[in-house]
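seq as requested:
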Amino acid sequence: MSAIARYFNNMGWKVAGYDKTETVLTKKLVAEGIAVHYEDLGPSIPEEFQKDNKTLFIYTPAIPRTLGELCHIQSQNLPLLKRAEVLGMITRNSIALGVAGTHGKTTTSTLLAHILDTSPLKCNAFLGGIATNFNSNFVESKESEFTVIEADEFDRSFLQLTPFASIITSTDADHLDIYGDAKEMVESFQQYAELTNDDGFLIRQINTEIDAPEAITYGINCSADYVGENLKVENGSFFFDLNTPNGKWNKIELGIPGIHNTENAIACIAMCIELEIDEKTIRLALKTFLGVKRRFEYHIRTEDTIYIDDYAHHPTELNALISSVQLMYPGKTITGIFQPHLFTRTRDFFTDFALQLSRLDEVILLPIYPAREEPIQGVTSEALMAEITQKNKQVLSPSEAIEYCNGKKSDIYLSIGAGDIDRIIEPLKSVLQ
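struct tokens:
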């Protein structure tokens, strides 16, 4: 939403909007001239935005359907479009490069945008996170015909897009409150894959359940078209080798660590080779990539203490995060602070969440972040804690978690989740330092 707000603001439109809580991002939007409020105004939206149907109202399905402002706009028949519809309209006349998947799409789309930006092709980009290299989730190039789009599967939003080419990173079950079951969700990804332009191409992680015989495949230690292997850490840097259809690339340096990020990088390499970007440009961009805010983001990295913040909110993402940390820091003790996101997701993957969290040396659970949902009886952080087999576990409020860590010694701390857990980053960093 904020990337679209920035797009229209850069175009000279007057932009205003609502968010649930004030964040670093909303403060930046305000500094850029975009008015943001944090109270549901209902019918009291400022008059200047309700005159003569000259305002386009854009909403994300992630907000509650009962939001007063949304209900008022609908009752007044004011021009109202979903975020994905607007994104589809904006990008329809460009060469759209979509990145879809239940995991990894933000980092992958951001890395793809970074590579293109360092190449002669350049690009525009609408991203789902704040790219550290750009310090924004919106990239603009008036000369480029390419647009990188994070293609969101929530509410089938990505079916509004017209991709020339796409990457599909994963089709693991998620958003079952929307899809009902995993089969329906995979079918939606299949429909998205079939939107690929006849002159374009599809790149998919080899384990994705997509019926696309012509698709280019990738993975790690597998039998795909592009295969990563020999992952290792040397002097704090992350390296891997890559077998491509046209030969082997040895010792590729990646600016951000992680097994999952290696897979994301392989997808981008495959896409960029198809776009005829040269190896030297790709290698340099991979090395200089600084990542995305809240995706394996270091806040403390000293000999005594490591603190990493990550957006992981699905068991598969937790597995990738914990496995990567254990690979990089063998034998170190890991304390994880996890905020479950959505009652439905916690319910649907209850056992899987408990299984992954049990791999930590100590688990601190925050109360479930509800977002748009009402509580579900029996679905609580306390119930999840009871399922975790690790003995060192407790449920704390955010402030209690910070205070607890103030008197605790662990080698590595992780703050994990997609809700408002980012609000503890600075105070936690402060007490750990």
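The CA atoms of residues 58 and 155 lie 15 Å apart.
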